[in-house]
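Exercise 7. Given the encoded structure of a 446-residue chain, write a plausible sequence.
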């Protein structure tokens, strides 16, 4: 029996797909790449944008074209919010909500014995306590970097966001389980562990530990691997976290802080929990302590009521800050959000124009940031040989893609950056750090 998994969305979803793959393996399924003939196809969905919703329908149709007799299982955030609509799609045998994902194996066995699609999806996760389910994954082209889910759900109520409905209340991995998971990953050969969460800055273990306690624990384990934070809200990127990272090279100087808008009015309407002054303060403090730190930001264009003046405020605010890259998203109306009911919608054409302008600004910032690393010594975790780049490629601690002339996969090498070729940083011959990775693959999904 064969099963394939297709995953949309964030690193969290990928980590959870890895856990789904393990459940399927326990039932005796061999995991095959999506697109191969399979008896079961699991689609792990996302609902961040309208496009993500549409893509889910497309992928289900594509899966059925390849494997017309496959049982289709749809889970994830889109499934959580629209279970009945998904159950009506051709070929769908099972719809599993986010709170029920951990029981996928059991549910699948039941679904395969009935003719009608089964929908197992709890209502309104915001009002229920949902257990934290740990998960980890690594990208299929790399055995060097693993993503470990530490937190799930969100208690905030940003007016544009459906995530709290789709994932429920904030919950976190128990503090005393963290070292077990991290040791397992390092024993499997991973040299970098990215800590992920839906709202990672809200990590709070059942025994009260917070994100800084996690970092202190990880550094104290002394496992010879480095750690990286995924996205942390600016209001949660406390100065003590920034100072700790500045003092501990085991934690990468890479900060991804969602901004969403640089206009005070729009930030208020979005119900974000910070003012732009706080954002700027965080950015400057990071750069003061770590001049080569990488700082990334998410921005949303075309939020209802965003006038040209608001947009120009955002543009000028970002332009004035030493931000290293941008992830720019175009606002789309999402059901169950307050913003969907705001009447002052921005025409689609204008939203797209603003997205294009900010993407260009983001690209300029990325290039400036890369250029600023020429002459700096960085530690690159080598992932793979890239024929087009003509060398070994990996990420530096400050999240630059670097080409190293001679290395081996999984090596951490300290290099001097010679030049920026317009796309990647180019390193001179390196001095290698001791490195004997021992590879035991974790379940990895496409
Ligand atoms: S912080 Fe806001 S945008 Fe982020 S998941 Fe929570 S509600 Fe959504």
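Solution.
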């Amino acid at each position: 029996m064969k099963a394939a998994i297709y995953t949309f969305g964030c690193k969290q979803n990928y980590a959870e797909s890895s856990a789904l793959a393990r459940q399927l393996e326990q039932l005796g399924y061999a995991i095959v790449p999506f697109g191969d003939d399979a008896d079961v196809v699991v689609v792990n969905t996302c609902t961040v944008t309208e496009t993500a919703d549409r893509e889910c329908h497309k992928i289900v149709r594509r899966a059925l074209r390849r494997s017309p007799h496959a049982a289709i299982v749809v889970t994830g955030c889109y499934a959580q919010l629209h279970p009945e609509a998904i159950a009506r799609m051709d070929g769908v045998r099972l719809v599993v909500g986010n709170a029920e994902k951990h029981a996928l194996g059991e549910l699948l066995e039941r679904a395969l014995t009935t003719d009608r699609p089964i929908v197992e999806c709890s209502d309104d996760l915001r009002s229920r306590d949902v257990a934290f389910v740990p998960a980890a994954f690594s990208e299929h082209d790399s055995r060097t970097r693993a993503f470990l889910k530490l937190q799930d759900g969100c208690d905030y109520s940003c007016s544009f966001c459906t995530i709290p409905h789709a994932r429920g209340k904030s919950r976190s991995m128990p503090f005393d389980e963290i070292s077990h998971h991290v040791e397992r990953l390092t024993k499997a050969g991973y040299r970098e562990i990215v800590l992920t969460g839906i709202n990672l800055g809200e990590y709070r273990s059942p025994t009260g530990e917070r994100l800084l306690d996690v970092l202190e624990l990880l550094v104290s384990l002394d496992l010879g691997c480095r750690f990286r934070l995924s996205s942390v809200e600016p209001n949660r990127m406390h100065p003590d976290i920034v100072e700790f990272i500045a003092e501990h090279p085991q934690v990468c100087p890479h900060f991804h802080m969602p901004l969403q808008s640089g206009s005070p009015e729009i930030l208020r309407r979005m119900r974000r929990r910070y003012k732009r002054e706080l954002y700027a303060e965080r950015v400057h403090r990071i750069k003061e302590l770590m001049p080569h730190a990488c700082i990334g930001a998410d921005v949303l264009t075309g939020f209802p009521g965003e006038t040209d003046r608001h947009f120009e405020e955002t543009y000028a605010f970002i332009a004035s800050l030493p931000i290293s890259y941008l992830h720019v998203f175009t606002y789309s109306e999402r059901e169950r959000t307050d913003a969907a009911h705001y009447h002052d919608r921005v025409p689609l054409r204008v939203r797209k124009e603003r997205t294009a302008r900010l993407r260009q600004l983001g690209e300029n910032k990325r290039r400036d940031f890369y250029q600023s690393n020429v002459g700096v010594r960085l530690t690159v975790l080598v992932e793979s040989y890239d024929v087009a780049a003509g060398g070994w490629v990996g990420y530096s601690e400050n999240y630059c893609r670097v080409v190293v002339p001679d290395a081996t996969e999984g090596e951490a090498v300290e290099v001097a950056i010679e030049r920026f070729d317009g796309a990647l940083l180019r390193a001179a011959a390196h001095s290698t750090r001791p490195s004997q990775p021992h590879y035991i693959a974790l379940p990895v999904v496409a």
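Remark. The first strand starts at residue 2 and ends at 7. Students should compare their own answers with the one above.
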